[in-house]
Design brief:
heterodimer; A: about 290 residues; mainly alpha; ABC transporter involved in vitamin B12 uptake, BtuC; two-stranded antiparallel ribbon; 11 helices; 2 strands; globular; B: about 250 residues; alpha/beta; 10 strands; about 25% strand
Chain lengths: ~290, ~250
């Protein structure tokens, strides 16, 4: 039984990378606007479908991916400016409902177009596997982990080292102070909502490498994203990433050693247990979230 | 001299409460105006109205002859009206230097792409901004804590830092909300010197709220007294000191 442990951990990390990306994408929008995007899963799904459409129109995979991410970024910016910003000072519940409604509308659009079809995005590389010692590394694991790690490193550098990152940190830390020095905080909200949508879309595309696309693709993922955020500490970007990776490993370990049922329910169990025992999660500062 | 800032009959209501009641005032370039008054007299609300943090219900606010009421805080800031808050305007987890740099960068939004791509022009601008920020921090005697997090500075240093950040872009008008609160006596006299120098050497118009009457009397060219949202005096310090209405506002009917 123990001989399988390294394999489970490696596969768990690869899956967890995907959850980490989704959790981080929700966190970006949340930190900027203090609104949790309950419709985020549908943007994840839309990212996968958009890539599928662009590939179908004859583009190679990489440009199709970039175009899809850019489209979702614009969609995020626009929906934030048009639907969220006008009510930004209203009750948080209205904002959360608005985000959810936008998500439902996107999902409705996908159902209208592809509702009864099975859609396969497919891989732009050959499916294969390598043996490292006794551990099997699939190409999927490598591509997903490599992509997410590269993305996270880029984001970390932008956030911590560049002047742009400093402006983003400034707005995260004090919106009043940011407006005071002449930063357009409203425009910033839109940009961050768009950035969150694009990151989520990237997660959707990675997911689409593994499973057939369906309009409900994002819902399944978003639960994992929320669980990862809760585990890592709601609102902490670092926590979101660590939470995602730990959740991925827990699913594999519990699924193998206890029961395969756990693959589907670990996210719920983690959410419940963390909220009961340590509501601020591993790296969180605030124990409660207004919605 | 043409007025830099001109308020005409400005009124701000919160529900039934009239926080600022038909106040008119002007601030000229290089002039230091102090706003004083008992707690709840409407001083901070008046500031918030000028900086765009609250909407006005009547009157108008002109800055350099241009209407600014109805603009957002960041637009007003970009036009050259900078302010400090009593608390909470700093970015606590950035260093003192970075706080000032953010203030400088906010001005160059057009070059955001350059900053992101690290073009050489953007790099030059960045190092020039850094040099300038360090120079300002040195000038205000907090250069030695430039690389400390803002939240680790003493209360007095945080105040000075807020002023430095507001000044970094050389705004024509500076609003200081109780700049001397929590300052040790030697820092206070330093602050007075700094405020004077900004007005006389750089021609910056300064509007400040302050409770420390001695500081107000020593630094201000003109003192405006508010009581229950109304302006009850507007005169040089010596004259205000002797004014009957002012004594009443502070001490009640004698």
């Amino acid at each position: 039984m123990l001989a399988v442990l390294p394999q489970l951990i490696v596969s768990g990390i690869a899956t967890g990378m995907l959850y980490a990306l989704i959790a981080l994408s929700v966190t970006v929008g949340y930190r900027a606007t203090t609104v949790v995007n309950f419709g985020h899963g549908d943007l994840v799904m839309a990212g996968a479908y958009a890539t599928f459409v662009f590939v179908g129109s004859g583009l190679p995979f990489a440009p199709a991916l970039i175009l899809a991410l850019a489209s979702l970024f614009l969609f995020g910016v626009l929906t934030q400016r048009v639907f969220m910003q006008p009510i930004i000072n209203g009750p948080h519940l209205s904002l959360a409902m608005m985000a959810l409604a936008i998500g439902y509308a996107v999902r409705g659009g996908a159902r209208l177009e592809w509702g009864s079809e099975v859609v396969i995005l497919g891989r732009p590389y050959d499916q294969g596997a390598f043996m490292v010692g006794s551990v099997v590394l699939t190409m999927d694991d490598l591509v997903i982990s490599g992509f997410v790690v590269a993305l996270l490193l880029t984001l970390a550098i932008v956030f911590h080292i560049t002047p742009i990152g400093r402006l983003i940190q400034a707005v995260f830390q004090s919106q009043r102070g940011a407006a005071l020095v002449g930063l357009n905080v409203h425009a910033f909200h839109g940009m961050m909502w768009g950035a969150g949508a694009a990151l989520g879309a990237a997660g959707g595309v990675l997911l689409g490498l593994l499973v057939p696309l369906s309009p409900d693709l994002g819902v399944y993922t978003l639960i994992r994203g929320f669980a990862a955020m809760t585990l890592g500490g709601f609102g902490s970007p670092f926590g979101a990433v660590v939470g995602g990776i730990v959740l991925g490993m827990m699913e594999k370990l519990l699924g193998f050693y206890v029961s395969t049922v756990f693959i589907d329910i670990t996210a719920y169990l983690v959410t419940i247990l963390v909220l009961l025992i340590r509501p601020s999660g591993l790296f969180g500062q605030r124990a409660t979230v207004r919605i | 001299m043409a007025a830099l800032l001109e308020l005409t009959d400005v009124t701000v209501r919160f529900g039934g409460l009239v926080a600022v009641d038909g106040v008119s005032l002007t601030v000229s370039a290089g002039e230091i105006c102090a706003v004083i008054g008992p707690n709840g007299a409407g001083k901070t609300t008046l500031f918030n109205a000028v900086s765009g943090n609250v909407a006005i219900n009547g009157g108008r606010i002109l800055f350099q002859g241009e209407e600014i009421h109805g603009l957002t805080p960041h637009q007003i800031s970009t036009k050259g009206v900078r302010r400090t808050f009593q608390n909470g305007g700093l970015f606590p987890h950035l260093t003192a230097l970075e706080n000032v740099l953010v203030g400088l960068h906010a001005r160059v939004d057009s070059d955001i792409l350059g900053l992101l791509l690290g073009t050489s022009a953007a790099k030059r601008a960045e190092s020039a901004a850094t040099a300038r920020a360090r120079e300002l921090l040195d000038l205000m005697d907090i250069g030695h804590v430039a690389d400390h997090l803002a939240s680790d500075l003493s209360g007095g240093q945080q105040r000075i830092l807020e002023i430095v950040r507001a000044l970094a872009t050389e705004p024509p008008l500076l609003l200081l909300d109780e700049p001397a609160v929590g300052l040790a006596p030697h820092m206070r006299s330093q602050l007075v010197a700094i405020i004077r120098r900004l007005a006389s050497e750089r021609g910056i118009g300064i509007l400040l709220i302050e409770h420390a009457i001695e500081l107000v009397m020593s630094v201000a060219d003109r003192v405006i007294v508010l009581n229950y949202g109304k302006k009850v005096a507007d005169a040089p310090p010596a004259q205000v000191r002797a004014d009957k209405a002012v004594l009443e506002a502070y001490l009640g009917h004698a």
